[in-house]
Structure formats: structure tokens, C-alpha cells
Design goal:
- By secondary structure, the chain is mostly helical.
- It contains 18 helices and no strands.
- The chain has a single domain, classed as Growth Hormone, Chain: A (Up-down Bundle), CATH 1.20.1250.20.
Length: about 425
């Protein structure tokens, strides 16, 4: 892929192609946040979903990472990533349009919602793998931390604005109508990504290997990097725990705590300010703490605030305060952690393997999410919503162990890919 003239530090705002990707990502992220609020509210308030049904819905929203996560990476490495991003957004917009039509005509059912969530999760697999593989080649390896920080900041702004906007819209219109706004945001994302002018250079066809071989190659890269394996284990266990919580979060807030959908949106929006601050602080934190040491530090920082969520109904102050503080501090640490780990693996991996590497990582770290969703639904039906959330908090706490009990605490810098194999950095010697 051809890129623009190398830029000075902190100058990606002047990079025309990155600006187009950035704007498209902003609209896509905003729409995704609207959907994260509106779909569960639609299931709980309109379709009277049970704890088990909410768990199944959460599982459907991420099931594709288990079903097609690995081959998606090999496919993405063979395709132009800009086209993959555009196609994925068009699929998501179309599926949501069908859900909106069903909701507004009164024919929506939980099976339809499951099917829509599954198709959208398939599109999201391709979008996320292509997106993470696209950034390094678009801006250069020296700017991936800056690029990821800017994109993460945008995602965090969307996490603030999306639930707040969705919560206010839910005061006046149905959850189905809110999803109609999401359709528009995905289409706007398509418009901006279409404006990227960089020409991608695909590997020659004669260099391609059988699909199964390429999938194994991507997995092999991940499992043979000791530091990367520990980060993947931390993220996977953490996602398992948070999926248990997420499956029951809307039921907990709307039924157990007795709050309104608008209050839920406001709480999530206020808590997401923590994520925005984390995005703004991520690059500076890496310089102050050390990019390697920051990973276990931020992983530990994600643990303690989570206990405030299941305690929201019993502490001597309004439940919204506990939700905002607990989730806000967690989001702050989570975003700092994500910036550090995503930037590490982008710089460590050879460019030709980026799609397969990202798909392999996503297969493992997001593959635990449908399991967590089903586990949350089952535990919610068996133990009750609040005890099930406590189980999720406990699993999340255990996620920090792989990176805390690792060499990362004694390191400052992380290894990166060197094009010259005789000068390649060996992660095991860092």
C-alpha cells in the first residue's frame, strides 16, 4: 500500500487518508453504541426477555468470532481492507434496517433478534480484523500508537455520546426507531471510508498458500510469542467475565434497580467519560510508566472498581453513582490497556501476517464472549441476576494474573518486528 509522506510526531490529523478512516470510524462507533443500548432495551422492555434469553442474545452478538474468526483473517489478508470495511458496514446497515422494520410493524421476535445479532457479528469480525490490520500500513509503524490513541479516543467519545443520545431518544421514540439512527451512521461510515485514496498492494497470487496453512501460520505466530500469549490470556479471561456481566446488565438496571432506559443511557454515558480520559492518557501513560509495565498495571487497575456494579443496589447512595464510578474507573484502565496491547501486536507482527494475527487474537479473546454470555444467562436463571454478576466480577479479577505474573513488570520497552531477519528482535530475549 502506498502511504503519504512520513509525518512528524502527532501530525496524523494532517493525514488525509487517516482523517477519512477516522471520520468513518467515528460514525460507526456512534452507531454501535446506540445499538448496544437499544437492542437490549428492545429485548427486555418490548419482548420481555428472560435472563437466559439475554444471555443467548449476548452470545449471538459475538458468536462469529468463534465460528469464522480464524478463516476471516486469512480472507482479509487476501482482500483490499478498504473494501472489507465498506462491505461490513453495508451488511450491518441492511440487517439493522430489517430489525427496525420488524420492530415498527410489530412482528419482531427474539429468534429474529438472535439471527440479526449473529449476522451482524459476522460482519463485525471482518470489519474489526480489517480495521486493525489497515492502520499500520496506512500510517506507518512509527505512528501506530498515535493512530490507535486517536481511534480509541473517538470510540470513547462515542461511548459517552452514544448512550446519552440513545437514552434521550428513548424518552420520545421506541428502541426500534433508535436503531434506525444506527442505520444512518453505518451508511455515513461507508461514505467516509470510500474517500480513502491509498492504493493497497495485495500479495501476489502465486505467493498464497492453502487456506488451512495460512490459518495455522497466523495462530502459530501468536502462540510462539510468550508476551503476546500472556496478553491474549488476560484479555480472553477478562472478556469472559465481562460478558457474564454484560448479559445481565440491562436486566439488573431496569428490573432489579428499577431505573428507566433513559437513566441506563445516562449512567453508561457518564461512565464512558472514564474511557475517554483513558484514551487521552494512554500515550502519555506509556511514556511515563513504560509501555511494557503499563500492561500489568492497567490490568490490575481494571479489577477493583468492578465490585461497585453488583453493590449498586445496597450502598448508601443512589445506584447510578455506583454504576458510574465503578464502570468509569474500569473503562479508564481498560482503554489504556487496549491501546498498549493493540499497538504492541501491530508493531510485533510482520505486515503480511497482520490480518491472520489479528483474527487469531480475536478468535481467542472474543471467542470467550459468547461462552460468557451463555454462562451469564444460565447463572442468572439459576442463581439470580446479582449473584451471577458477582461470578462475572470474580472471573474478571482473575484475568490480571497472566500479565502480573510475567516479565512485563520488570520491562519498560516492548519488542517490535524488524524487516531484516538477521536483525529481528526475539521477544523471548526481552
Amino acid at each position: 500500500m502506498s502511504t503519504e509522506t512520513p509525518l512528524r510526531r502527532r501530525s496524523l490529523a494532517r493525514h488525509a487518508d487517516f482523517r477519512a478512516l477516522w471520520a468513518g470510524d467515528a460514525f460507526g462507533q456512534l452507531g454501535a453504541q446506540l445499538a448496544l443500548l437499544a437492542i437490549p432495551v428492545l429485548a427486555v422492555n418490548t419482548l420481555a426477555a428472560t435472563a437466559w434469553e439475554m444471555g443467548a442474545l449476548t452470545a449471538a452478538e459475538s458468536a462469529a468470532f468463534l465460528l469464522i474468526g480464524l478463516p476471516a483473517g486469512a480472507w482479509v489478508d487476501r482482500l483490499r481492507k478498504r473494501r472489507v470495511l465498506i462491505g461490513a458496514d453495508l451488511v450491518r446497515a441492511t440487517v439493522l434496517g430489517v430489525v427496525v422494520a420488524c420492530a415498527l410493524t410489530g412482528v419482531l421476535t427474539m429468534p429474529i433478534l438472535y439471527a440479526a445479532a449473529l449476522v451482524m457479528s459476522c460482519a463485525t469480525v471482518f470489519f474489526d480484523v480489517a480495521h486493525q490490520s489497515y492502520v499500520p500500513s496506512l500510517v506507518g509503524l512509527d505512528h501506530v500508537v498515535e493512530g490507535n490513541a486517536k481511534l480509541q479516543a473517538t470510540a470513547s467519545v462515542a461511548q459517552v455520546a452514544g448512550p446519552a443520545l440513545g437514552g434521550q431518544l428513548l424518552r420520545f421514540v421506541s428502541a426500534g426507531a433508535v436503531l434506525g439512527v444506527n442505520v444512518v451512521t453505518y451508511l455515513l461510515s461507508v461514505v467516509f471510508v470510500s474517500r480513502i485514496r491509498a492504493v493497497e498492494e495485495l500479495p501476489p497470487r502465486e505467493e498464497r498458500k492453502p487456506m488451512l496453512h495460512e490459518i495455522r501460520e497466523g495462530l502459530a505466530f501468536v502462540v510462539h510469542q510468550p508476551l503476546l500469549v500472556r496478553m491474549v490470556a488476560c484479555t480472553s479471561i477478562g472478556n469472559l467475565g465481562w460478558s457474564v456481566i454484560s448479559a445481565l446488565e440491562t436486566l439488573f438496571v431496569l428490573r432489579t434497580l428499577g431505573l428507566s432506559p433513559a437513566a441506563l443511557g445516562t449512567a453508561l454515558s457518564a461512565a464512558s467519560v472514564g474511557g475517554l480520559l483513558g484514551a487521552l492518557a494512554g500515550e502519555r501513560a506509556a511514556r511515563l510508566v513504560g509501555e511494557a509495565r503499563l500492561i500489568p498495571v492497567s490490568a490490575v487497575a481494571m479489577v477493583a472498581p468492578g465490585v461497585l456494579v453488583p453493590l449498586a443496589g445496597v450502598l448508601p447512595w443512589p445506584p447510578v453513582v455506583s454504576l458510574v464510578v465503578g464502570l468509569g474507573l474500569t473503562f479508564f484502565a481498560m482503554v489504556v490497556y487496549n491501546i498498549a496491547t493493540v499497538s504492541f501486536r501491530q508493531r510485533l507482527c510482520p505486515p503480511r501476517l497482520l490480518g491472520r494475527m489479528n483474527a487469531s487474537v480475536r478468535f481467542i479473546v472474543w471467542g470467550s464472549m459468547p461462552i460468557g454470555g451463555l454462562l451469564g444467562g444460565w447463572l442468572g436463571a439459576w442463581l439470580g441476576v446479582v449473584p451471577a454478576i458477582w461470578v462475572g466480577v470474580g472471573i474478571s479479577a482473575a484475568s490480571a494474573l497472566p500479565v502480573v505474573l510475567s516479565p512485563l513488570l520488570t520491562m519498560t520497552t516492548l519488542p517490535r518486528y524488524q524487516e531484516d531477519p538477521t536483525d529481528a528482535t526475539d521477544p523471548q530475549k526481552s
